[in-house]
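seq:
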Amino acid sequence: MTTVRLWTDAEAEADPRVKAVFDDIRATRKSDFINNIWRALANQPDTLDRLWAGLKAVMVAPGSLDPVVKEMIYIAVSSANGCGYCVHSHTAAAKAKGMTGAQHEELLAVIGMASQTNALVTALQLPVDQQFLVES
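struct:
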C-alpha cells in the first residue's frame, strides 16, 4: 500500500504545475498512461518536475547508448536496489523498445552472475588488482 495519495487525472488538471508535467509525460511517451510514481510525486510538484526533467535527460534524450540498453541497465540497477516497481516498469519499457525474450533471459543471467560474484568478492574482501586501477 502506498504511503501517499496518488493523484487522479482530475486533481492533476486542477494544478497547473502538475498538469504541465503530466501533459509532458503523455506527449513524450505518446500515451495517456501516467505511472504511479508520477501520481505519487504530484504531492511534491518541485520533486515531480525535477525528477521528470532528469529522467527525460538521461532516458529519453539521444545519447551514445541505445534506448533498449538504457532500459536494461535500469533493470539491472533496480534489481540490485530491490525496487520491484522499477524492475516491472522498466522491463515493460525495454520490451516496448524492442528487447527480445532472449535478451531478457541473458540480462537476467548477467544480473544473477554479477550478484553472485559481487557477494563473493565482498565476503572475501579482495583488494582490487593493480591492472584495474585507473591512473589519472
